[in-house]
Amino acid sequence: MTSSHTPKAQVDYIYRADLRAFGAIGFQDVWLKRQGLESGDISQAILMRTFLRGIDVIGLTSEDDKMISGSPEDRFGFVKKGLESLSDSFDEPERGVLRIRKGGKSIYIINCQTMHDPNWQGLKLHVIGGNCLPQRDRLNDAVNYANDKGYMTFLMNVDESNGDNLNLVESVVFNCTGVIGHDANNVFPDWMRSIPVFGKRFKGKARSRNLPEESWIETLGKPSIAVSSAHWIQEIGSAGIQYASVPEEHFSLRALELKIEGKRFRADRGYNSPLRVLQTGYLLNKYGTDQGRFKGDKSSSYNQ
Questions:
Q1: For the chain, how far is it from start to end, CA to CA, in angstroms?
Q2: Residues 6+ positions from 78 with CB-CB distance below 8 Å
Q3: CA atoms within 13 Å, Cβ hemisphere of 215
Q4: pLDDT tens digit sequence for 151-198
Q5: Regarding beta strands 178-183 and 105-116, do their DSSP bridges make them parallel or antiparallel, or are they unpaired?
Q6: 221-253: b (≥16 Cβ within 10 Å) or e
């Protein structure tokens, strides 16, 4: 007598991904101390918070006009150096992706950069897969350069009430992977914009700056994702996307890109703390251009 055995169907793994997170504001001494951290603690703190929030993938994001590889403004390179002590559970399975095995699961950290320029009508370009990209005064040139490198590209700060902004969006969006339609830092109700004296402080982070779930961008066939834009460790994973894919051992940037391009994901449109968003703005205004604000790395552009 013979018997046949039907293999058990492979169950897809549900990934939770936050594809724009700064980790801790500035990676710089004055702000790290606000979170009870020293510069050497930042890699482990990001890893632990990602693990505790149940996040599988974070896009660790740099955004500076001048970046020196391996210095704190190169967040991916800086965190990579900080994780090298985990040699038995840490590797780089492909360019721009760190994999850390912890608690029976894998956490993936992706190299990302958000670019901006005064000529871009308020838009930003979020690049997934690499950083230290050259600054461009033409948005189309920045998109094409990132695409040639094989990176994913997402427009940020799409403003449906601004004609010049939308004209620029329409000229480049078809060359982009998609848009960031929901930023968790855009947290304040619109009515707060009318508060005398203080209202202007809430305008730039109003909820109306986020695109509706079915915006005209999506009618163009482009996906709209959600991100936390976390400037504080506690904010990692406050917004993001979820998608089903093959088990976590087979994660790849290309598989992620196909899920996003095919709109086979769910956007988690959460929000950061309004008080923390205000605190971020205050600290940026007070310390954002101070010289010598990262004592841990004399070569950093923060100290120049």
A1: 79
A2: 27, 42, 43, 70, 71, 72
A3: 21
A4: 999 999 999 889 999 999 999 999 999 999 999 999 998 877 667 666
A5: unpaired
A6: ebbbbbbbbbbbbebbbbbbbebebeebeebeb
